[in-house]
Design goal:
Blueprint: H1 5-30, E1 36-40, E2 47-49, E3 54-58, H2 69-88, H3 90-103, H4 105-114, H5 124-157, H6 164-178, H7 189-202, H8 219-225, E4 228-229, E5 232-233, H9 234-242, H10 252-275, H11 299-310, H12 315-324, H13 326-335, H14 340-352, H15 354-370, E6 374-382, E7 386-387, H16 389-404, E8 414-421, E9 429-437, H17 444-472, E10 480-488, E11 492-496, H18 504-516, H19 527-542, E12 551-559, H20 566-578, E13 582-588, H21 593-603, E14 610-614, H22 620-635
Parallel strand pairs: 1-3, 9-10, 9-12, 12-13, 13-14
Antiparallel strand pairs: 2-3, 4-5, 6-8, 7-8, 10-11
Protein name: von Willebrand factor type A domain protein
Domain VWFA: 431-628
Pfam families: VWA (PF00092)
Amino acid sequence: MTMNECDAKRAQENFARFFSAEARNIATFAGDAHFRCVPILQADRFVFVPQEGMVGVPLQWFLKDDFDGKEILWNLFRELVYYRELKADYAYYCNRVSFFEDAAQGMRRLMYEAVFSREARDEIRVRAFVQHYCHTEVASLFYLFDAVYAFHYVRNRAPYYTTPEGSALLASLYQKERGVYWEHTETALHLQFAYALAERVLFHDMPKGCNRACIARDPVVQEVLRTLVLGTEMSNFIHSEFFPLSGEVVPTKHRDRIVSVFLLEHFVRLWHLSVANITFELKNITDRSYDPFRNERAFEYTKSNLHAVHSRDGQQELKKREDVFESCTTQFDERFSISPKERKEFARLLRTTHRLRIDMRSFWKSLIGKSVQWIDCYEGKCPKGRLNVGDFVSVFPDFQEFRGRDQRYKLRVYDRVYEVRACTLRPAQIEVSFVVDNSGSMNKEKIASAREALAVSMLSLKDFGEYSDMLAAGRRERTTIHSEVYYFGSSFIKVKSFGKSKSKDFNSAQLIKASVNLDGRFGGTNDAEVLKHILADVERRRARVSSDTSFVKVVLVITDGCSSYPHESRRTIEELRRRGVMIFGFQIGLMSPEETALFHDVWNSTEELGLLLGERLEYLPRELLRTLRVVLSKVHRLSSGERLHAQRVW
């Protein structure tokens, strides 16, 4: 379906009006404060990008007059259930197609035996037809109960739909989608079974008047539906497994296992009864004409969507995302005065450092996960737990005496073992200052290397902060991390502040500008002045914090030569170290023996804090990230009362 300009404009207006009113409800349901819905003009399905917190919504929805706002919101919530599950376990979704193939093996074997002659079984067209047909039939069963789960999940998360008014809305909505309530007199037995069971589970707890579930007409199907599973009715069993009383989220993997073990056998057996006397003809495969929920996932679409999520770190997927976010990027650049040249250079930095950033993400996840420590606690003389033989022997005479009197004696002879979170002290703030040489001696190659190192380091720290915030949700202590950037030459300038009180977009814009505006136009190499400025700032902050361990400061200096004022630089570095600041220097570019000796005198006179890379410019981003790994690993191993000092990390 294509839209003319008038329809597209009207759809855009309806979309903006709808999401301005429902943005908070949608973000709350998605469980992501930064969640976004982006309209897509030429699309008939949702586009999920979980790693970016984005769902592409087809604008065609907002051209139809058949559905009002509440019905559109319901359908959007229902799609967000799949978004949440895809985001939670995309690895299983990527392997789910293989799971369906394995589940369809029994149906393929029966189809070969019942339908095709032995000579026809080896034909390529026959094998392709059987594989596609059986996969579609089996997958439809699993997708059908995905829709059932999404139905109840939305009702539990959005209380409005549990009210009589909301329940009536859902009943009318499903009637509107189907046109009429269906009867299964002409439907295959296995589909009668699947749809009838799904509706019984679907309308399990709907108010009277809304529960108009279809009734399977075939007596064979009715007999199967009356089958008891673990001593209870089949629909009640599925409802209890999919929607436990505890309210816990049931993973897709568990639901698939339930359907595969308890329903698939009946589904295949009824299918076999239906096709026993049917003659199959090979022709072009078309979509199923009847779909009561209009929510089945096409096989090809599912594979392509999951492949996009699975390869989310690849360049091809990044290019697709650029097209989706093009309009948002343009508005962002206009708002913060980012030129096309700056945007292009930043995109280059993202491409060249992408793999390094992905590696750092894996490291941050591992580091933050290990930082949560648990200890085992033991409690004795409990009424329940693990039997303590010694305690039982000591109270056994009393136990016998009370039992002889026919009186109850409460035995407290058990040990209880439970885990508690270890009491650790994490710094409340981590500040990382990047000091970058912008003197006239910085040539094109050095500038490119410094830009890459700066961009990937700041982006990695941003990732670390996001993972740390996720962990802080269940902890009392909270660690925040911020970065700032200075350019220095004959003088210095701060091009990126910590931005603690600024918006997320403002900080992102500063990060872009700080990464791409290094140009080598600041004259000499006076790093002493900027280091003195940082020292004065540290002294002010130390006076306001409660302890040495609540504030961690890291300074990373990138320079292409020795300092113009080496003695002042060395004294300032030593003073920063005495203040507990972790400071490291990185030298790039070719230097004379005299300049090399002077660099060592400034940075490595007492401890090796400076690294000479020379003409190995490509190593700068990797070495900068490795230093951050060591520093933040040390920070997360802090125990109460320990003081941070700069150490050799190479």
